[in-house]
Each structure stands twice: as C-alpha cells, then as structure tokens.
Design brief:
Layout (H helix, E strand, L loop, with lengths): L2 E11 L2 H32 L5 H13 L8 H23 L17 E4 L6 E4 L2 E4 L3 E6 L7 E10 L2 E11 L9 E6 L5 E3 L4 E2 L4 H18 L5 H35 L2 E5 L10 H4 L3 H18 L2 E5 L22 E3 L6 E3 H21 L5
Parallel strand pairs: 8-11, 11-12
Antiparallel strand pairs: 1-5, 1-7, 2-6, 3-4, 4-5, 6-7, 8-9, 9-10, 13-14
Helix pairs in contact: 1-3, 2-3, 4-5, 5-7
The protein binds zinc ion.
Length: 372
C-alpha cells in the first residue's frame, strides 16, 4: 500500500495560565533562534567560519543544563536550530543562483509564532480530548474530525491571538475506482480556472468583498499610534481578516480539487514551476501563492485516489491552436481565432484543451512500448 503525508489542523483552547506558558515557550524558542543566528553571524564575521547544525545542536545539552533555556522539550529545541539551518541553506542557495540574497534575519517575538515537536509522543501527546504539551500541560483541543493514520510531527501555532495545532500524519492511500475521463485545466486571471470542456470556474463572490474588508482593516491599523493598545487590537483584527481569507480560499480549493479528483481519472495542469517561459505567465504570478496551494491540494488528493495528475510545459499554451498553428495574442485578447483551421473559441478554453492534449501526448508516449 502506498503512503502519503497529510496535515490536520485543530483549534486549541488553552486556559489563561496556559496561554502565558505557551507564549513563554514561543518566546524561548524565538530567543534560541536569534541566539543561534547571532552565533553563525559572529563566526562568519570574525573568522569566516561556517557553523553547521550539528555544531550548534551539540551545545544544546550544556545550555539547557546551565538553565539558560526554558524551552521545555529537547527535540523542539533541535527543531528551532534546524529552522535556522534551513534559512541559511536557502540563503546560500540564493547566493549561488545569484539572486537577491537577503541574509537571514532576526525574528521579533511577535512574529515567531510556532513550535514544532518533530516526533509525536516526545513532548506532545493526545490524551482523550486533551493535548499534553511539555512545559504547558493538558490543553483542551477541539477534535472536529478524527485523525486517520499515524501522527508524525506536531506543530503548535499562534494565529491572530488564537491557538492551533497541526498534525502531520502518515496514512495509507485510498484509491478510487478507475475512471477513464480526462480533463485539462487552465488557471486564469479573470476567472479562477477554465476546463477543457469549456466550463468556467468563477472566482468566488467573497473574494472581492474580503479584499475590501482587508484594506479597511489595514488602513485602520496603520493609522493608530505605534506601541499603543489600540494599534495592537487593530493589528489583531487585521490578522484575523487575513486568516479568514486564508480559510475561505483553502475551503474553495479543497472543494474544487475534490470535485476534479472524484470525476476525472486524468487531470492535466500547467507546470507553474517552469517560469519565465510563456509571456502570459508573468501576470499569473500575481496569484502564485494561491495557485501553489491549490495545486498542492490537487496533487495529494490525486495521489490518494490513484489519479494521474500531469503537469505539462506551460510555454505558449495561449499562443498556439489545437491544430498546431501559432496564434499570437496579447493578454487583453480574450478570444481565440485560428486562421489555419478556423477554430473560434474562448481563449482560456483553447488553452485548457492544449494543456490536456499535451498531457495525453505525454502519457501515450510513456505507455507505448519502445520501438525496437
Ligand atoms: Zn487552428
């Protein structure tokens, strides 16, 4: 049986003293993060030395024994050091690629908002309807759905003054009955996506409303005096508005991806990782974050159900016709008109068909036996 990783999110309801303890744990984790960053910076500035994760992790025991660190769980401390390590690796990778590097930065206490327990049972455990957290105690949790599979890692997170826990779970895939239907999908600018059968999936109505609300909250927060209580409250409202949009978007993405996976055996999309190829792609990057999270949901659901999700080269999907003729268009040209074969249709509809054709071409190539 194939296995896959999925994440469950639950709300936590810590008591008042527990909130204090949780905030304290985050503050300690943040202090460790910044200290580890400082050490790496100093080593580099003074002696051009590069300190790695293991060198830092080896000091942990001593630091904790001396009582200089109150982050309760040892593995959680290691995880903090691993985050610093990751930040540096990403930094060096950017330098290597000659991109704008952005040296890893110190984190402010207000922005450091999660602790990860890398292995379930070590510092964290579910006990009936409570979550036992080392250094905090038994915290009330709302298990609105059962956790299916084996919990691997646990992350406790503060989001706009509320507390959540994320379980990363390993579970067996549940294949759906085979399905020979196939569908291409072109993510769009005006609508959310267009399918190769011509169906247009609109952006939900809440989208614009939520954006407007967000702007209002943003203005309110920025007008208030820095460091004031009123500002802090306005910022929290702003964070809630952000979280609300995130949730709405995630819900929408879950529904669309679930529907696609349930109804089609082969789903074709553009490989948006291949950047800088198609001219129209640049404009789509506006929505990058959104597409990435949608494609992730689609990918794991497809894997779970045993569906083929095929990512095709996105180059010029909007600049060619299904007959192969070149049909250059600007972004504002919404209609496809081919002078070779006479095809006349909505531009995104044609793109979705081309995406599907490319995917089917790929699978036929992959399945056909090698000549001689
Ligand atoms: Zn044509």
């Amino acid at each position: 049986m194939a296995e896959q990783r999925i994440t469950y999110k639950y709300r936590l309801y810590p008591s008042r003293p527990q909130v204090g303890l949780l905030n304290g744990q985050l503050a300690e984790a943040c202090r460790l993060y910044n200290a580890s960053l400082q050490e790496r910076r100093d080593a580099w500035c003074i002696s051009r030395e590069n300190i790695n994760y293991y060198a830092q992790a080896n000091q942990l025991k001593e630091i904790r024994a001396a009582g200089d660190l109150n982050l309760a769980n040892f593995s959680a401390c290691q995880d903090v050091l691993r985050r610093v390590d990751k930040a540096f690796k990403a930094f060096f990778a950017r330098v290597k690629r000659k991109q704008k590097a952005g040296y890893p930065r110190f984190k402010s206490y207000t922005r450091f908002d999660s602790i990860t327990f890398p292995s379930y049972g070590d510092g964290c455990k579910l006990i009936v309807s409570k979550l036992r957290l080392q250094g905090v105690g038994l915290v009330k949790i709302k298990l609105h759905r059962a956790v299916e599979g084996k919990i691997k890692t646990v992350t406790v997170k503060r989001e706009a003054g509320r507390w959540y826990v994320f379980f990363s779970v390993e579970c067996e895939t549940k294949p759906l009955p085979a399905n020979s239907e196939s569908m291409g999908l072109d993510v769009g600018l005006l609508s959310f996506a267009t399918l190769s059968d011509g169906t247009e999936i609109e952006n939900p109505r809440w989208y614009r409303e939520a954006q407007a609300k967000l702007r209002r909250a943003q203005r309110k927060a920025s007008r208030r005096k820095k460091g004031s209580n009123r500002r802090r409250k306005a910022v929290q409202l702003l964070q809630r508005a952000h979280a609300h949009i995130r949730n709405q978007r995630a819900d929408f993405h879950h529904k669309i991806s679930r529907w696609l996976v349930n109804n089609y055996g082969l789903i074709a999309v553009e490989d948006l990782n291949v950047k800088g190829l198609a001219s129209g792609m640049l404009a789509k990057s506006v929505n990058d974050v959104g597409w990435a999270s949608f494609f992730n949901k689609l990918a794991y659901k497809a894997e779970d159900a045993g569906r083929a999700l095929i990512k095709v080269n996105p180059s010029s999907t909007s600049q060619t016709c299904t007959c192969g003729a070149s049909t250059p268009k600007t972004l504002s040209q919404r209609w496809h008109q081919c002078s070779e074969c006479g095809l006349s249709a909505n531009r995104d509809h044609v793109s979705a068909q081309i995406i599907l054709n490319r995917a089917v071409g790929l699978t036929v190539l992959a399945l056909s036996p090698m000549a001689d």
